[in-house]
Specification:
This protein is α/β, with parallel strands linked by helices. It is 39% helix and 21% strand. It has one domain: P-loop containing nucleotide triphosphate hydrolases (Rossmann fold, 3-Layer(aba) Sandwich), CATH 3.40.50.300. The longest helix has 22 residues. The protein starts with a helix and ends with a strand. The mean pLDDT is 96.
Length: 201
């Protein structure tokens, strides 16, 4: 299924009252953010992206909890806060959402607002389908779930390019990928519930 096909499917299924919430899940570097942005543009007006990344714990919290080396793993997110946000988005017209600012490596609270005009929400994140508490409580809140299935070799290529872009040395990037990114990839690939739609990348 191409992004255009997916946009057409979402448009057809969202043709009703209330919000239509789509989960876009996949491992790190699978292309979730790019797909979400493309879908939002194709479905505009009335569609917008809601990223899970706004619920990263601050680096100081991770350090205090001994989780700095595992940033991006499930315990490094405020999962209950994210669950509460999705419940609010189902029930309320206007909801402020946090945005993760990669230039500062921190989340900015209430950095954007979902309004009543936003009927199609494209929620993107690694662990939207994770079959573990409290993440599994998200399941009934999504109208459609999509999983991006990308071969591990391609994920590694993209992760190396990502960390090179962010200024890491090759050695530092390889160490971070081996100790953090790859375990997160395996968590998503092997502990996620089946999605309604799988897109091969």
């Amino acid at each position: 299924m191409t992004p255009a096909d997916l946009a057409a499917l979402i448009r057809a299924r969202a043709n009703g009252p209330g919000r239509f919430i789509v989960a876009l899940a996949g491992p790190p570097a699978s292309g979730k953010s790019t797909l979400a942005a493309d879908l939002a543009a194709a479905l505009a007006p009335g569609a917008r992206v809601v990223p899970m990344d706004g619920f990263h714990y601050d680096d100081r919290v991770l350090e205090a909890r001994g989780l700095s080396a595992r940033k991006g793993s499930p315990p490094t997110f405020d999962a209950m806060g994210f669950l509460h946000l999705i419940r609010r988005l189902r029930a309320e017209e206007e909801v402020a959402i946090p945005i993760f600012d990669r230039t500062m490596e921190l989340s900015r609270a209430a950095a954007d607002v979902v309004t009543g005009d936003d009927r199609i929400l494209l929620v993107e994140g690694n662990y939207l389908l994770l079959d573990a508490d409290p993440w599994r409580a998200l399941a009934p809140l999504f109208d459609l779930t999509v999983y991006l299935d990308v071969p591990e070799d391609e994920l590694l290529r993209r992760l190396r390019a990502r960390w090179r872009h962010h200024g890491r040395t090759d050695a530092d990037a390889e160490a971070w990928i081996a100790g953090n990114d790859l375990p997160n990839v395996q968590t998503v690939r092997h502990r996620s519930r089946p999605a309604d739609i799988v897109i091969a990348g």
